[in-house]
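B., you asked whether I could sanity-check this one before it goes into the benchmark set. Here's the sequence:
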Amino acid sequence: MRVNNILFDAYFEKTFQKYKSKLTEKQKENLKNKLIIFKNDAFDESLKTHKLSGNLKDYYSFRITYKDRIKFKLLENWDVFFYDIWDHDEVY
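And here's what the prediction gave me:
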């Protein structure tokens, strides 16, 4: 599924900038590549995209690194809304 637009709010932007500030140049390059893959195919096997459950059943998540994920929601016309970026080991 090719994503038309990636939308986000001020909360996500702040969280994303904080996350990026802790990355090495190599990790930033990996992040950039993951976002390119996501834009071309949100369900590319390498991203391990999956539907969340419980209270988050309307959301999906994809893998940036082994432990870091982006939570998003599918919208109309193949747009997505990024809600959060978090460490998978933390309770969400």
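One thing to flag: The longest strand covers residues 80-87. Otherwise nothing jumped out at me.
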